Amino acid sequence: MNGLRITNWFFALILCSPCAAQTEGNNVFGPDHILQVDIDFYSPSYWNELLTEYYGEQNYIPAAITIATEVDTTTLDSVGIRLKGNSSMNHPGNKKPFKVDFNRFIAGQAYDLLKKLNFNNGFKDPTFAREKVFLDLCEDDGVLAPRATFAEVRYNGEAWGFYTVVEQIDDQFLDHSIGDDDGMLFKAGSNFGPGSDEASLIYEGPDASDYGDAYELKMNESDDWSDFIGFIEFINTASDEQFENELGEHLDLQAYLRSAALDNLFANLDSYTLSARNYYLYQNTTLGRWQWIKWDCNETFGSYAFGVPGDMTELDVEFDGGNFDRPLLERILANDNLKNAYLAEMCELRELYFNSEYLDPRLDAIQALIQSAVYSDANKMYSNADFAANFDNNLGTGGPGGSGGPGGALYGLHSFVADRSAFVANEVDCTGLGTSGLSDQQPFSVYPNPTNGRVTLAWNATGERPTIEVYDLQGQLVRTISTASRQSSYDLNLPPGLYVLNCPEWGTDAAVKLHITP
Q: pLDDT, tens digit, for every residue of 227-268?
């Protein structure tokens, strides 16, 4: 292929791709830093209004906001503010989680091309690092999840506290992460309170009304849920052979297996795995498959273990919900080919990321970055001593599995990684694990995407090692990669922009868009 022979598939990929200009949220979620956020409410009774709206209709109240980064300071008028959250609303005092909607009262208003930001209050986390570290790893590994940063917040000039700032899952997120925002976006319901329905992906019937409040359609709203319900029906009613051979036609399967394996490694059980909460499903109209997106990851590192006894560093590598029905995960782990593919992802994640060599320096850097701001937070849930101790040591009585805080143990972050990584290495024989059963569904994947130039290529087909070709916007072949193993990392050494990666022997349907950022 050369510049005079740009085929239709290449043009199609380019036209549906995000441009190589400014990416949504790159200033907010750039290199590690702490935002300075001042919120000035117009009403003197703003706190009572926030509480009233939260326990009523969860409406927003207006305020001005000033956000200072290391680069600049921006003030916006008439943004919307509301309280949010479920268990995190139990944080003592007035330091509640909240959401900012920049265009709630002024249509089209945005900050860093973003419509909304979420401010989480560090509930059940003395270190304030659990969610940030987990989401950073998701970004490094190409797992679909929101980005995160930190902020010191003031309300009407009063220091309010230190927060984790998390990206909203919306069309802006979809634009920069996958370049497709035309499909339906479903959010798993919170299933808090009596009578709430679990987002368990159990088939309940053909009508949307059969699912109560288990799922919420957040984007491209329609009364026609037939595609979504059809996906759930397939999960539950397909024969074993159909499930193995056709699941990848419904779900971005390799990406889901990697996401689920990451949840298991981090014992992130306030997720589909156990609580059946905290995930999105997006109908990618370009791929023609559903994609899994993580959400609300503050109880990673084994902090959520309701109903699951024992030490979370020794959580079963094939844990599928225990006494709760989780048909998607259960059927994957009941199928030898799919289970081996899942365990292969777990092996690679442990080797590349979930180990002390990779995570200890990351944890140390976060601790050094935020310590002063955390110590200055007079409204935080835990003491300064707890902050310092919990990076290394378990908090609470009884050791692992004990009660370090509301709802369960608070494991030391460094020790959790070391102990859990060692346990998984002992439990899973990674020799010979492969994904041959998936070879016809997803020949290869590229992550992280967007990237600053270094990528990991993972290929699933059997046979000879594939050659990957990289094309620029003009259709010129700019790089050829001879893959070294089923998963290998490469420095592309290419200028920022949009590229297409393709393996000739698998055809153009296997082409992958890649965005290299400055």
A: 999 999 999 999 999 999 999 999 999 889 999 999 999 999
State the Cα–Cα distance between residues 259 and 354, nearest whole angstrom: 13
In a domain, 438, yes or no: no
**Among residues 299, 488, 313, which one has the least CA distance to residue 414?**
313
Q: Are 430 and 347 in contact (CB under 8 A)?
A: yes
Is 165 exposed, middle or buried (CB count within 10 Å of its CB: 0-12, 13-18, 19+)?
buried
Q: Are 245 and 330 in a shared domain? A: yes
| Same-domain status, 498 and 405 | no
Number of domains in the chain: 4
Q: Work out the angle at residue 43's Cα, subtended by the Cα atoms of residues 40 and 45, and round it to the nearest 5 degrees.
A: 110
Euclidean distance between the first and the last CA atom of the chain, given in angstroms as a whole number: 27
What is the domain range of residue 247? 180-352
Pairwise CA distance, residues 163 & 41, whole Å: 18
User: pLDDT per residue over 173-203, tens digit each?
Assistant: 998 888 788 999 999 998 766 667 899 999 9
- Look up the pTM and report it: 0.82
Contact 162, 152 (CB under 8 A): yes
